[in-house]
């Protein structure tokens, strides 16, 4: 059996107009996916989000929420009450991420054991 070299990769394999590298919510923000999942069933207050996100500091949560709001993934609503009340909710754009998240979770459930076994095997070999 002879091995043939694959064709060279074309220069335009990763086109300049492909938006994937600039979509920050898809993974470059550690807490974004978890925050989205927390908001799946409706609006939540900052203090409510802190409960399931126990490992996050208040500063990082605030920064994450602010950046996700800038991306149009969630909306921050201030209520004119005393004491002041603020809620965060997914936007329609943010809700479009739930399907891909479900698919990634299903993939993880099916393949995590194999992935971890491959990783362990690799570590043993090095």
From TrEMBL:
**Statement: the UniProt record of this protein carries the keyword Transcription regulation:** yes
Q: Which domain of life is it from?
A: Bacteria
Report whether Transmembrane helix shows up as a keyword of the record.
no
What GO annotations for molecular function exist for this entry?
Answer: DNA binding
Q: Report the Pfam families cross-referenced here.
A: HxlR (PF01638)
| InterPro entries for the chain | HTH_HxlR (IPR002577), WH-like_DNA-bd_sf (IPR036388), WH_DNA-bd_sf (IPR036390)
Give the residue spans that cross the bilayer.
none
Instruction: Read off the PROSITE patterns from this record.
Output: HTH_HXLR
- Identify the keywords attached in UniProt to this record, alphabetized: DNA-binding, Transcription, Transcription regulation
**HTH hxlR-type domain span:** 18-116
UniProt-listed Gene3D superfamilies: Winged helix-like DNA-binding domain superfamily/Winged helix DNA-binding domain (1.10.10.10)
Coiled-coil intervals = none
The record ties this protein, via PANTHER family, to:
TRANSCRIPTIONAL REGULATOR, MARR FAMILY, TRANSCRIPTIONAL REGULATORY PROTEIN
Protein name as catalogued: HxlR family transcriptional regulator
Q: Which organism is it from?
A: Streptomyces rubellomurinus (strain ATCC 31215)
């Amino acid at each position: 059996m002879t091995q043939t070299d694959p064709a060279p990769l074309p220069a335009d394999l990763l086109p300049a107009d492909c938006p994937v590298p600039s979509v920050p919510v898809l993974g470059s923000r550690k807490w974004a996916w978890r925050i989205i999942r927390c908001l799946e069933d409706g609006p939540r207050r900052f203090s409510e989000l802190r409960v399931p996100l126990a490992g996050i500091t208040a500063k990082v949560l605030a920064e994450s929420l602010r950046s996700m709001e800038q991306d149009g993934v969630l909306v921050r609503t201030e209520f004119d009450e005393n004491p002041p009340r603020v809620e965060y909710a997914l936007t329609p754009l943010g809700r479009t991420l739930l399907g891909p998240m479900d698919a990634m979770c299903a993939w993880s459930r099916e393949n995590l054991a194999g992935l971890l076994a491959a990783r362990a095997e690799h570590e043993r070999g090095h």
